[in-house]
Amino acid sequence: MPRAKSDKDRKIFVLDTSVILYAHNSIMNFAEHDVVIPITVLEELDQFKKGNDTKNFEAREFIRLLDKLSQDQRIDQWTPLNGKTKGFFKVMMHHPENEKDAIKIFGDDKNDNKILNVAVHLMETEKARKVILVSKDINLRLKAKSLNVNAEDYETGKIKNITELENTGKYVMDDVEPEAINKLYEQGYIEAKNVLGTRKRKSNAYYILKSEKNSVLAFYNSEENVLERVDKRLAYNIKPKNAEQTFALHAIMNPAIKLVSIQGVAGTGKTLLALAGALEQRRDYKQIFLARPIVPLSNKDIGYLPGDIKSKLNPYMEPLWDNLKFIQNQYKETDKEFQKITELVNQEKLVIQPLAYIRGRSLSNIFFIVDEAQNLTPHEIKTIISRAGENTKIIFTGDVFQIDTPYLDSQSNGLSYLIDRVKDHPLYAHIKLEKGERSELANLANELL
């Protein structure tokens, strides 16, 4: 189909490989504007076709989508995207004959420079239209700007205001009547309107209620429209050390809440509380899964590490085993609780594995803890939750500001996406742990270094 070029308001977006691997359907999210895929991107995607990681899935799905959209047309010509409000797309070949040649300027025949050359070529040949390179690679965006090429991050699904997530889940009220707090202590609950009045109420929110005389921790039960008193309780001999940990353990052990996210810096007890809560409820579930994504060191695959597959994975899983050992060491070796943990591991009732090993399994009757969830993409978070079957509970823990995965940041990672999209759902609760409880020395590192 011939491409009409009279509409100068239509922008041209040039997509980098990182955008495709982040979201295979990204090509469909540029409204009425046009999209260009450099041939270098297709060549790079070809290297990602095989494998079971999310990036492999995204590469395969994008190639299928491109094939479906192009049908019997040549992909190097403008081809309509689906829908009347959509623009057009095409694949462009290498263009080293530009006035500005990124390969010569940067002195390297690498793929990033070939992608830059496509954007430069479009700027030189489509002078009436705005050309924008879209990449999740910050370095590539900087190189583009050095050539006076407009460059942007892929914004779809990105959290606009990360600071709003900081206030999700917990609220402090200082002007509560002492009688209301007394009633909460006496009967364990109080009608929400007697304390919250006309304030907006969010499902599964937690409150620190204070008066001049006393204070109490409370949970808003949206189904009953009441505030319930929250008490500190032990979970496999692990006791919460502050209000936020008390709230987190309450959410972890509340059977009505099926999805929990716990945000906090290192040492705040996220994984420890989740695992202790899981062990306390072990009789209610067929298995406990504790998993975390593998983020290769220096962006190298784990194949670079020495030893067999178990040796390669041990460094990544060791922090999870440390939490389990800490809980087990709350008891003597002769105690039945100590022996029960060993038995759960030996019988594979409690499984600690890389997330890639669990992805694809049926998640029915499972207590599933996903550690370091900030290193997952929104699509990975969605995939995990969508596999949940009957009687499954999922806990995501992590720190949205401690990103180890290339092309993710505090606004685009899966944990931030989850907190933003699912807040106020009756099946979901979120808690931010603020105080480090590992040691005073660890607190010093988090606060001052």
Structure description:
This protein has helices at residues 17-22, 39-46, 54-70, 102-106, 111-125, 138-146, 178-187, 193-196, 243-252, 270-280, 309-328, 336-346, 355-358, 378-386, 414-422, 440-448; strands at residues 12-15, 34-38, 79-80, 88-92, 131-134, 150-152, 170-173, 189-191, 206-210, 215-221, 226-229, 259-264, 287-292, 350-354, 366-370, 393-398, 428-433. It has a 6-stranded mixed β-sheet. The chain has a 6-stranded parallel β-sheet with strand order 14-13-15-16-12-17, with helices on both faces. A 5-stranded mixed β-sheet has the order 7-9-10-11-8, sandwiched between helices. A hairpin with a 4-residue loop joins β10 (215-221) and β11 (226-229). The protein contains 16 helices and 17 strands. It is α/β, with parallel strands linked by helices.
Largest sheet: 6 strands, mixed
Radius of gyration: 26 Å
Strands in their spatial order, largest beta sheet: 3-4-2-1-5-6
Rounded mean pLDDT score: 87
Number of strands: 17
Shape: elongated
**Amino-to-carboxy terminus distance:** 59 Å
Write down the oligomeric state: single chain
- The proportion of strand residues reads 15-25%
Q: Which regions are unreliable across 5 or more consecutive residues at pLDDT < 50?
A: 1-5, 297-309
Q: Please identify the structural class as seen in this structure.
A: alpha/beta
Q: Output the number of helix runs.
A: 16
Helix content: 25-40%
